Amino acid sequence: MQLYEWLSNVASGQSSAKALVYRDTYLSWRGLLHRVDRRAQELHALGIAPGAWVGLMLGNVPDFVILALALSKIDAVVVPLDPTTGNRELEMILEAAPLRALITRPRGGEGGQASAGLPYYASPAAARPPAGPPSKFIPESRRRLQGTLLTCGLYKRASLAGFADGAASPDIVQLTASIGGDPKGVVKTSANLAAAAEAIGKTLDVSASDRILCTLPLHASYGFDFGLLTTLASGATLFLEDEISPKRIAKLLREQSIDFFAGTPALFGSLVRVPTVKPLKTAGARFISSGSALPANIAESFYQRFGIRLLSCYHSTQAGPLALDRTGKDPESIGRSFEGVELRVAGPKGDRLPASETGPIWVRSRGLSVASVPRIHLPKRSDGVPIGGLDDGWLRTGDIGQQDKTGRTTITGREDDLVKVDGKRVALGEVEGCLEAFPKVKAAQARVITDDLGGPMVVARVVRAGICRAQDIIDHCARNLAPYKVPRQIEFCEQLG
Q1: Which phi-psi region, left, alpha or beta, contains residue 120 (left: φ > 0; alpha: ψ -120 to 50)?
Q2: CB burial class (10 A; 0-12, 13-18, 19+) of residue 158?
Q3: Does residue 256 contact residue 18 with C-beta atoms inside 8 Å?
Q4: 120, 205, 229, 259: most buried by Cβ count inside 10 Å?
Q5: For residues 93 and 175, is the Cβ–Cβ distance under 8 A?
Q6: Closest by CA position to 77, among listed 144, 164, 9
Q7: 3-state DSSP call for residue 452?
Q8: Cα–Cα–Cα angle for 1, 219, 56, nearest 5°?
Q9: What is the set of domains in the chain, with CATH numbers?
Q10: pLDDT for 330-341, tens place per residue?
């Protein structure tokens, strides 16, 4: 219950200070604590007991914050989920994670079908299941949370063995992609959360006077760590935004004097293109960029227009904050490690490499999670520790890079087919498998490119087995993959290179 403990501590010390601002409303720390306590009582009355895993399929709204803290109070496990998660992917998540409950917004579509991104078994009871095999995971009941439009579906699920009460019990499970593209839940304890918050707080000098803007999704680890986690640990004010509009974000940065803001290169690239922006006058502002490589032209353009240097950051779901370019003058580097984090470039067996030599990146910290669901059996490698494996507390991340004599690190690639698109892991093998499942595709090859505006996107080369249009293939992928995994461009060819 680390999250709730932070809330209680801050509320007792600065009860009337602003805790959460969302559009035209705000909650003080005392008001937030009151709402959390009431919601915790309701969840307990629904039968959600300590140790129960509860999915939150919500966007960046106050309800996400309140429910996450309420679940923390009753010692339940918070499992944030992307609201755009499709039927197939949620089915795999439910297979791997023993959700006792799933809280979401009911959104019935036309004809009784569940709307896009919302599985039919998370929809109102009147919704009819889409064509195809029925889900194995039908809620035994659905309840409407008091005073909201939120629906809580309750499942008959037993807790996983091996996650007993104690120091190793999970507080939160954050979803990412495994090497095969299947969902993998990264299990984080109170100690992991405290270490991540301490690393961010000390490295970036976060205090209660800071004003933090969070536009990144809270269901993703990057947004959660640099948004809610940092706010609770420091007692700062969190400005929450669920509308990704560059004009609106630029206005918030200026009018609310935001001190702390984490984004992606694509987001900062879109802010640069807003025609009416003026330089910001917030002294000591820290704007962090992660999720993919930060192009030098975007970093420089943002500095010229806003007067603030972007700090290139290295972050992962499993290990949390890892490295940061503290000066903001070398965007193509991820700088040196966060406080309390060890990072090195070493060989496949963990042996340190000479400065400027390219090799696998290894990390070690108290924020590193050592458990996941489902438990993945990593393939053995004859040349050393497998990618994603641990050796004496050191994690082989799968990233490849170089490190100079001062400890500054530059990422140069990956060891496997896992790539990042706007901060989300994508397994290219999964995309290729989906493409080749289309009847008129003989073979496919997927890759990620970055456009001139800093936006990474998946594109594909396809060998056709019959006459079809690129849009037909994209529509097929959209029905079977999460939106960020769908190829934006299809190039037809005679054979793959």
Answers
A1: alpha
A2: exposed
A3: no
A4: 229
A5: yes
A6: 164
A7: coil
A8: 65
A9: 2-188 (3.40.50.980), 243-346+360-373+391-416 (3.40.50.12780), 420-492 (3.30.300.30)
A10: 998 999 999 999
Measured in whole angstroms, how far is the alpha carbon of residue 46 from the centre of its chain? Answer: 28
Residue that is written with structure tokens 């109070």 in the block: 73
Cβ-proximal residues to 377 (8 Å cutoff; 6+ apart), any chain? none
What share of residues in the chain are helix, strand, coil (percent, to 5)? 30, 30, 45
Alpha-carbon distance of 286 to 276, in angstroms, equals 22
Beta strand spans in 155-215 (E): 172-177, 183-188, 211-214
Sign of the C-alpha dihedral computed for residues 217, 83, 472 and 434 taken in this order = positive
- Rounded Cα distance between 456 and 459, Å, is 10
Question: Over the stretch 39-75, which tens digit does the pLDDT of each residue have?
Answer: 999 999 999 999 999 999 999 999 999 999 999 999 9
Looking at residue 481, its pLDDT comes to: 86
d(CA 208, CA 6): 13
Among 454, 453, 440, 450, CA closest to 489: 450
- Tell me the pLDDT of the chain averaged across its residues: 88
268 with 298: CB under 8 angstroms? yes
Instruction: Name the pairing type of β-strands 183-188 and 310-316.
Output: unpaired
Give the SS3 label for residue 225. helix
Q: Which distant-in-sequence residues (6+ apart) come within 8 Å of 479 by Cβ?
A: none
Q: Helices 2-13 and 190-204, interaxial angle, to 10°?
A: 50
